[in-house]
Design goal:
- Helices cover 42% and strands 11% of the residues.
- It has three helices and two strands; from the N terminus they run αββαα.
- The protein has helices at residues 14-31, 51-55, 61-65; strands spanning 38-40, 46-49.
- A two-stranded antiparallel ribbon has the order 1-2.
- The radius of gyration is 21 Å and the shape is elongated.
Amino acid sequence: MARRAEMVLANDITREWEAEEKIKTEAQLLDRATDSIFVHDRDGNFLYMNEVAYKSRGYTRDELME
């Protein structure tokens, strides 16, 4: 008689999901700001910019993120 074994692994990703939702909400708020918002690293590379930041300067986001 053959024995059958099963293994079930489960991870609770609630915290990660909640953190992602919070980041999405904060990004939406930044995108709706009427002032330019730039975020860059220590080397001056842009990590984020809101829509006002690039549109008011006549660029696309991709052009400034290069």
